[in-house]
Prior knowledge:
Blueprint: H1 2-7, H2 12-20, H3 24-51, H4 56-73, E1 81-82, H5 88-119, H6 131-148, H7 150-153, H8 165-175, H9 181-200, H10 206-221, H11 228-232, H12 249-281, H13 287-303, E2 310-311, H14 313-321, H15 328-348, H16 353-367, H17 370-377, H18 381-396, H19 399-421, E3 423-426, E4 446-452, H20 460-465, E5 476-483, H21 489-504, E6 508-512, H22 516-524, H23 527-531, H24 540-554
Helix pairs in contact: 3-4, 3-10, 3-14, 3-15, 3-16, 4-13, 4-15, 5-12, 5-13, 6-16, 6-17, 6-18, 6-19, 9-10, 9-16, 12-13, 12-14, 18-19
Amino acid sequence: MLRKVHDSLEPKLVTLFRRQGYSWPDFSADAIAGLAVAIVALPLAMAIAIASNLPPERGLFTAIVAGFLISAHGGSRYQIGGPTAAFIVTVATVAMKHGYEGLVLATIMAGMILIVMAFFRAGEMIKFIPYPVIVGFTSGIALLIAFSQIRDFFGLSITTVPPDFIDKLTVYVAHLHETNFAAVLVALASIGIILLSKRYFPKIPGPIIVVTLSGLAVWGLNLPIDTIESRFGAIPSMLPSPVWPEITFDKLRLILPDAITIATLAAIESLLSAVVADGMTGTRHKPNAELLGQGIANIASGIFGGLPATGAIARTATNIKAGARSPIAGMMHALWLFVFMLLLSPLIVKVPLAALAAILMVVAWNMSEIKHVREIMHSPRSDRIVLLVTFLLTVLVDLNFAIQAGIALASILFIDQMMKSTQIRAVESEEDDPDSIHNKKIPEGVEVYEIDGPLFFGVAEKLVDTLLLFEKPPIIFILRMRHVPLIDAAGLHALEVLHERLHHNHTRLILSGVNPQVRRFIGTSHIDDKIGKDNIVDHIDKAIMRANEIIGEKF
């Protein structure tokens, strides 16, 4: 019953209202928490859109529309959704390849994929992505985010920044002589303000101090650096009308890989954020409901002129620390952002781009997972390899390919470890084991071997190769399987091949200690008809008795 509730697609908001109700003090706490988060989200939403080579209002539209719907329909009590830095590279690449209309279509398709994932209960599957893969691509994204901010951080006059890391590096080096030291000074001062405010004024969001002071400095001192207004013009004070993009089969086929990338990243990032929230509060999120909420929010974000959205870890943590009590806080954060856009848009455009670049540099540093990277670098060699390969592929190739390759590599290395841990050996005497061969009388001409570990495709060949150890074929070969918890198709095939080769040498195979699950698979594959049902037993004593019977029949 508990699992049924946990897996349900019912929004967390509905579950909480039905179980606990909602009071005016709860609303007051949520409204205040939502305001605190909105103050943090305002500069971040614009900075993320600008870093994605899109107008800043796209980020605000996303934070308002998707932020509201993620909280209303999601499966986490405290999740704050919106545009996140993790999407910057992907969004910039998709927009450059397919234009903004292509990005909208990819976002809507990603939302539909997320809904399908929710209905197929894929929320529980995300946890099987290996930890080194997550750290590797998160660290890679952090580097790409920081690298994407160099243009505005140094005030370089580059019209278009290419999406690829190496191409970016080449363009930056070619324009480095154009460094605007006023922009660098504002950016460095902004980083300093964020760090100092976190240390001395932790209750005041550093980014809002930065955008306020930097905007006043640029206006008051007439500093020659780019602002939102100088590059993008005015910001609209209302949400746009919903527009459904033109859809053709060719467009869908062309954009599908990008939509899968967006959906995968949104799923991973949102569920990671929900797990962090659970750890901070002792609550438990509903992963499939969260995916459903993310899907609905991304479809709406695309229709209302926004960007891909997901759960934002830093904003979610801010929400919790500000005293949020329910998903209403996330919905209020979106409403507060709408009020800011409605009333403050003439002031928002005065923010210098160097300050926004500095904010994202700090975000990138916080995303870099330096602590976790160090931990993994002291872990087994296989984890280090997976981390480095995923990191390098994220930076140099593509996020989607990096995740796929990282998971594939981690799986291969895991199989290799499982192969090494599964042993097939002649049975050794163990005095503390009541079923040890040391305590049994083994008939002459009988060899006893034991498998210790799962019998799957990685070790199937090793089982067949045990026959090479015999100079003279035994009369009977007893294979103890008491420590075999599971078997797959390759393992079943290996048993069949083992039986055939033993039969060719006039040796009978007896399987001992076969557990009911493994026995069932042997039966459904009809291998027991070949080996003989009497030759598959559940204990070594029965195997020895059967061996004596066979020897008696032969001689």
